[in-house]
Amino acid sequence: MRLSHGAGNIPYQLPSVIRMSAPQLPPIPRAVCVYCASSRQCDPEYHAAARRLGTLLANDGRTILYGGSKSGSMGALADGALAAGGQVVGVLPNFLADMEVAHDTLSELLLVDDMRTRKHLMLTRSEAVIALPGGSGTFEELLEALTLKRLGLWTGPVIIVNTDGYYEPLRQLFAAAINAHFMDERHELMWLFVDSVEAAVQALDNAPPWSADARQFAAL
Question: Which domain holds residue 47?
Answer without folding.
Answer: 19-205
